[in-house]
Design goal:
It is found in: Membrane. By secondary structure, this protein is mainly beta. Strands 20-61-60-59-56 form a five-stranded antiparallel beta sheet. Strands 29, 30, 31, 32 and 33 form a five-stranded antiparallel beta sheet that branches. β4 and β5 form a beta hairpin.
Length: 1116
Amino acid sequence: MLMTGSVGDGSEFDWEDQKTFISRDGGLTWRFVHNSSGLYATGDLGNIIVYIPYDPEEDGDFQSEFYYSLDQGRTWNEYELTNAISSVHPYKLINPTPDGSGSKFIFKGTFATTDSETNSITSLKGVEYIIDFSAAFDSRTCEEEDFEDWDLADGKCVNGAKYKYRRRKQDAQCLVKKAFKDLSLDETPCNSCGESDYECSFEFVRDANGLCIPDYNLIAFSNICDKSKDKSVLVEPLQLIKGDECKTPMKIEPVDIPCDEIPEEGSSDREIVTTENKFDFEIKFYQYFDTVADESLVMLNSIGDAYISHDGGQTIKRFDTNGEKIVEVVFNPYFNSSAYLFGSKGNIFSTHDRGHSFMIAKLPEARQLGMPLDFSAKAQDTFIYYGGKNCESILSPECHAVAYLTKDGGETFTEMLDNAIHCEFAGTLFEYPSNEEMVMCQVKKKSSETRSLVSSIDFFQGDNKIIFENIIGYLSTGGYIIVAVPHEDNELRAYVTIDGTEFAEAKFPYGQDVSKQEAFTILGSEKGSIFLHLATNLESGHDFGNLLKSNSNGTSFVTLEHAVNRNTFGYVDFEKVQGLEGIIITNIVSNREKVGENKEDEQLKTKITFNDGSDWNFLKPPKKDSEGKKFPCDSVSLDKCSLHLHGYTERKDIRDTYSSGSALGMMFGVGNVGDKLLPYEECSTFLTTDGGETWTEVKKGPHQWEYGDHGGVLVLVPENAETDSISYSTDFGKTWKDYKFCGDKVLVKDIITVPRDSALRFLLFGEAKNMGSGSFRTYTIDFRNIFERQCEFDITGKKRADFKYSPLGSRTGCLFGHQTEFLRKTDEKCFIGNIPLSEFSRNVKNCSCTRQDFECDYNFYKASDGTCKLVKGLSSANGADICKKEPDLIEYYDSSGYRKIPLSTCKGGLKLDAHLAPHPCPGKEKAFREKYSINTGAYALVFVTILLVIFFAAWFVYDRGIRRNGGFSRFEEIRLGDDGLIENNRTDRVVNIIVRLGLCISLITKSAFQRTKAGVARFSSKLRARFGNRKGPTYSSLLQGQFSDESDGLHEDANDLSSFTSQDSNFEIEQEDAYRPEQEHTSQIDQPATSNIPDALPARSAIHKPDSTAVRNEDE
């Protein structure tokens, strides 16, 4: 194995000091490979190793090279890419053979092209190489004598056995050239067992010295004292590791455990453990580190004292800052073990191990402005700090912000850019950045009222490019950067980039409710789309707007829902359900017209979508409340009686979301059942376990909630009311129990747990009024003892009944083009633990496309019948715009009115987004004609060739079968079967057969025609005889009068048909079950045209053909 690292005590880490090492004994010993970090890959089962440094210039020259070893890393050879472009920076090195047995490698990299005059980088280009070692050692294949036995762990016992493995000798001059097979180990059990063969027994845990000591919580859980009548019990602290194969067990001295110190078995309340901590000052800030290693968190009180806990708040230690108060705590959003505490005296305390240790550094000599840090997504120690320069006072004329850059976690800072108030490491955010070193900054000069957006690829040491001269602000989300730019008439425009270089204006749909683009809120992005709220009413206290969604590059938006509620600060009642695709909950203003006219206050209703905004429905209310009383919604439609929930705009803490990413399908909400949303204090608490399809009222009144053990434990606590109890459920909300956690009632301000909602400990922050000092308290409530065991995890969901794959709710059909099943716990008596359960789902099958897999395209709206129609007075998106973005294209297509939802993976089926006729891109007309024009020369040659063949065949038959036998005149005398024809050889016989066959067909056709003609004449004669005495126009007058009018009518019908076939499609579709593609092309023109011919029309006129025949005749 190859690894990148450094030699030291582990207290410091420097990316620039990383080296590469190799081990060929499973990590037991290591050898130095190279004095740099880079990419590496192996081939031929480890007998070929390739290493490429990240920096091609680390060896002092500009020429790119790679290093390889053919003796398992003992010696290395350098290979210069002599014909290559210099300074190729690698980003991928792979062995394309999946099992690593191949001898070929693919190396991909990038190189920069520079301006010869300024020596500045003009562009980045990619390059790819294939490295082939198949001819190494003169293509010799290894034989049996080239292999050796290798002892795992240097021949020591591992899990009670010694193992050997067959591999190629290190100095063998050959390649194995065989596909990888599962390891075939020679296993020999060890005679005696050692300490490495043992682990702590269930009732014990290891201390800091590695000794197994009793854990009384686990002892109570194991019930060992219940099986003993004595006051103590002897328990062995060690047990043999399961699967260990050593033969002779080690002698273990048991430990005497006093049973009177163990809690007796009783109710569930007595199994739950509560730990209380008191504080003299209120805890204002608290946040967990988002890791699975432990339950570490940082807390900060109102006077600047910081506290650290590593067990979910059970034991809390005050952080020693040597008297310095902490003014701010910032967590690194990209590296979950890192946090920074800013001191009031200019010190910064940083930790990279969840608060177990801290490093102290000095901030730049600048005034702390309280601006948030901006971090690099790829370098843990790189971030930007904002300080005030020349700031004796914030109001000083010379006071301005400066962006300071650190690359060593705050040990040293360099001044990066004056007047910068917000920067982003843009190059680390994009999937395909134009330059990974790019930094973008918003600059606000005190002498100017405007803000500009600038970028640099060298931290503004020399490169400083102005992107926009005047902006309102910008932000990044999901691989996009969106910039708000002021426009004329107090409007805004949004510009989007996905690489940091090319910016495109975001096109918002127009409508009657969108008069001006004055404000918008970016709601986030997910899987190729940006969600955005465009304000349509900015009356204070009555704000609302349209919910929009973009295409994959964020430039074209469509309207998903109208009148979505927002507040004055721009927050929107919009929330995506975590862990599930395409489920969104919003609150809409149902009386928007009257609100816009200031005639009524807002009336909010809650809506939900299960297909990413294409279709919306009101929440289905439960039939009964938590007391068993029926809701009055049985015979009322959902638009008049449904469930409504208070949303994002009313939250005290934005971290308190409806759902949890680990408790799949579960959501809590405070709301009511009725025709509109009631005030918060009049509402109750509701729960869904199937992603919002069905809901249950679980408690009267508003409650705070929290999820534990991936939803295996649910906890509720009353909101805005003093209490001494919580309610909890261990069966996914089916039943609830109350637990008293304290003696005196307190006002619980918040309840939290780890961000992954996987822990069994909950932390409550409460305030006990009228109790003097120590009135601010935390309560850690531990549910670890209420479960019998930990669930046995099986990714297949088959071996045990603890987990199984199942669909969510009743949605067994397709959603986003596939059927998905989730791995969920089935046994309520076990706990899940830190297993990332939300990551385990499977697609049962992909589905055919249906209407639900499409949404309306730009400037199209969804009509009441479900079809997408063009907004009156507007046009669809200009398809030619794509030609500007992709210069290599020669054609574009007009919109069909539909576009596929980015989340959908459907294949086949309905194709509502099918392209219409192509159009040439501007300037590409010639290439377009060449692509679609017919090659007339080739077709003419084929046509002439066919005519010549037919003419030659006809002439040959005439010459050999007709002319030589006397010409056409003789055939009037020849009967079939006559032997008078000349037949000298086989060719003559074949020709004469053809002639006889033609004569036979001619005679039959002639006879049939004569019989038909005679029959028609007899039938016509009978009709004239029957109707000849009736009054009416003569046959000749019909021909000269009315029939000429009918002919004109047929001519008009032909014109109508032409206009019909040229009409555009209205994009409407029938219901899915009734959809038949072939019916769309079924015309009604094959029905006979109505006629004004009177009853006296002679019989022959009855055979006039319908309009469609007339059209064909006229065309002929």
